[in-house]
Amino acid sequence: MLLLSPRRLETSEILRLRALETLREADVIASEDTRKTGLMLKHFEISKPQISFHEHNEERASERIMALLADGKSVALVTNAGTPGISTPGTGSCAGPSRRKSNSR
Question: Are 62 and 96 within 8 A, CB to CB?
Answer without folding.
Answer: yes
